Description:
2 copies of one chain form a homodimer.
Chain A: H1 16-23, H2 27-34, H3 43-56, H4 62-69, E1 74-79, H5 85-100, E2 104-109, H6 114-126, E3 131-135, H7 141-146, E4 153-156, E5 168-171, H8 173-186, E6 192-195, H9 202-217, E7 227-228, H10 235-248, E8 255-258, H11 261-275, E9 283-287, H12 292-295, E10 299-303, H13 306-318, E11 327-330, E12 333-335
Parallel strand pairs in A: 1-2, 1-3, 3-4, 4-5, 5-11, 6-7, 6-8, 8-9, 9-10
Antiparallel strand pairs in A: 10-12
Helix pairs in contact in A: 1-2, 1-3, 2-3, 5-13, 8-9, 10-11
The structure holds a DNA duplex.
Amino acid sequence: MTRKGGNPAPDQPVSIASVARRAGVSIATVSRVINGIANKASADTVAKVREAVAALDYRPSSAGQSLRQRKSRLVAVLAANMANPTMAAIAASVEVALREKDLVMVLCDTHDKPELQDEYLKEMRAQQARAIVLLGAVASPLLAALRGSTTPLIFVNRLDPGGGASPFVGIDNDAAGADMARHALSRGLVRPAIIHAPLTSSATRARVEAMARVYAEAGHPVPPERRLGPPLRDHLAIGHHAVRLLVEQGLSCDAYLCTGDLIAFGARKALVEARGDAGSAPFFGFDDNPLNDWVAPWLSSMRIPYAAYGEAIVDLILSENGEAPRQRILPHALVIRPAAGEG
Amino acid sequence: MTRKGGNPAPDQPVSIASVARRAGVSIATVSRVINGIANKASADTVAKVREAVAALDYRPSSAGQSLRQRKSRLVAVLAANMANPTMAAIAASVEVALREKDLVMVLCDTHDKPELQDEYLKEMRAQQARAIVLLGAVASPLLAALRGSTTPLIFVNRLDPGGGASPFVGIDNDAAGADMARHALSRGLVRPAIIHAPLTSSATRARVEAMARVYAEAGHPVPPERRLGPPLRDHLAIGHHAVRLLVEQGLSCDAYLCTGDLIAFGARKALVEARGDAGSAPFFGFDDNPLNDWVAPWLSSMRIPYAAYGEAIVDLILSENGEAPRQRILPHALVIRPAAGEG
DNA sequence: GTGAAAGCGCTAACAT
DNA sequence: ATGTTAGCGCTTTCAC
Lengths: 343, 343
């Protein structure tokens, strides 16, 4: 039934030439009309071309355009870790924003490895990508080389590891970390554990430093044994491992300040495994995964407006006048959830 | 520091011609060597070309290749809903598998809307995509038209809505649904609620029908009032809404069979809101989100090997000999977690 | 084993 | 306002 009644499926041999032929005009005219070059075609001509385009269901070949214009409509998004729901959320948001501008998203997972990131950077140069968005960039040779090129490089969440003032979209991690610490302090939580991802990320570093600073200034410095950052890739494992360590050492604390929601998930699980319940010390995370309301009503979290990232990122891409690179710092907000109970 | 000490950043004006010049051979020869056309170049020539390629850091322009070969190295993945962690997981898996074959993933979110899906299908034709992977296809005009084209169309999770025997990757949803129902029955759960996504998805339909059938055959048919499929887009909302309805009607049940993990999340939340606790009826879902172990120890779930999807999909793409389309049915497995307790 | 040349679809510079 | 043409980078005959 499928094969028999199938459509003709001409496999698009319809080029600009066929449109020109059908409209009875030259190829150049078709190109002008399609690209909306004003004052360059009579109303009549425009109509004829539009008719032909519609009738033939014509759409310019990207290969032809890219070759000629030396740039494609592809925007590369290099994510450090697609398994992290956060990255997926940002990617989704970017995709929507790009679509609006008639751009197309290429998604690559660098797995936080410099070699892979470089491989992708190279591939995207070959693709003549319009821009490259780095969701959690890692320092790599090619990244440095590319920084001077005309291809816009947008850094998201993590600042450019090369240290420049490259275009950036993210939150004020220092302020957010400080806010979280101040909130905890205001609740009388003076013996927190700070559990964090590897400090290679500028975002993580800023959060941890701010929290530590606020606690120190309040007269409750957080000693090294309550600052835990196992060198693992997986955030869940980091949290789990850290709390197991804490428990083994018999260290008690009255709050768990984690630099990511996933870390908090891991931390709480380790606690439950060790003591049979989650205790009364509240958990804090960053990102505020949309699922938190449903499965983690015990977790307070710093909400980051990932849904708004896409627009900010695409803005940055398109406003690349070669002018001073801009930073887009989006607002954060601490979402408080009940400290105990199962929810 | 960034600007001053920056690299030259030549913006890749290095074409095959420059390589040929540097190697002292013709363009054609360079092309042959690069593409590994055997027995077509002396060892000496090959060496010279390789040297030039390396020195110039040359990489063929995809635009040039695509134009000439009338096909690109892009593979489109049209996901019905990127916000669903399941889709993200599959996309991640596909991306890795594609990379191995030197292909590039373009990710598009169709939001389950036919118009958007068609828009993307059109765009991908313009991009001369090597293949199109549909993660949850919806029926749409262009999809039908494209089915006869030479561009491989791979259907994932949901069967081709057009009904043909198109290439497919997924699980045996009928068997999985039956397995779940049989397991519940074996535990003496004879008054289940079946909560499901819209039946427009062939996967959902198969699961629901299988569960209902098994229950009916066991002498415990599930009446309509315990089969709930609110016509909402968001799985969390579906579950939440369904259980609220159940509670309002005073209907009791001894198990919640949900066609997706997210639905189960929503269902349980509604239950907790209504009665203060989650009760003793166990929850069942599909997908087995990796986060379940961490945040939903109360949820039993049908594990689907999403990590293996990528390889299967890419296999299907590349084995497109124009021969009989193949189906890749991957194994499912029910993961049982404690029915009660907080975990 | 190697090179010359045509041509993929498109845009822009230059006619007219 | 419209047409002619060059050329973007590449692969692939076809000659040699």
